[in-house]
Amino acid sequence: MKISAKFCPNCGSPNIKWLNPQMWSIWKCWDCGYQGAVVIEDEKLAEEIQKKFLEKIDNEKVNLKKDKTESSLEE
Fold first, then answer.
1. Does residue 68 lie in a domain region?
2. Is 1 part of a structural domain of the chain?
3. Nearest to residue 16, comparing CAs of 31, 37, 1?
4. Contact, 7 vs 38, CB < 8 A?
5. For residue 30, is it within any domain?
6. How many CB atoms lie within 10 A of CB 12?
7. Which helix (H) or strand (E) holds 38?
8. 6 within some domain
9. Which domain holds residue 31?
10. pLDDT digits over 6-31, tens only?
């Protein structure tokens, strides 16, 4: 039986483990905090998810900087 790698469906990280081994259907990602029953076993799909997740994080950082700049200009 082949054991496949598991990846987080939220951020694509392989750092996902059973939250509680007795509750084997609940997984937790130790990178983004995702908790749920769904995991990804397709490495290419995980890479795509990870790329989109990082783009989302970068966009949020840009928006946060923009909001800080705008609020400091209003003062």
1. yes
2. no
3. 31
4. no
5. yes
6. 23
7. none
8. no
9. 16-74
10. 999 999 999 999 988 776 789 999 99
